[in-house]
Amino acid sequence: MKKLHFPFIVLLMLCLSSCSAIAGIFKAGAAVGIIAVIVVILIIIWIFSMFRGK
Q1: Higher-confidence residue: 19 or 41?
Q2: Which of 14, 32, 38, 48 has its CA 20 to 30 A from that of 22?
Q3: Three-class SS string for the chain?
């Protein structure tokens, strides 16, 4: 099992430069963060609308 991971890691190291790998991680993190903030805001608006309707 460990022998299977080593060639994959070496292949990734050769194919990706460190800057592009880190940039991809931060882009994904920023996108997930923005979506999470939007979802939280929508939930708060939904909760307030439930209390105002009654």
Answers
A1: 41
A2: 38
A3: CHHHHHHHHHHHHHHCCHHHHHHHHHHHHHHHHHHHHHHHHHHHHHHHHHHHHC
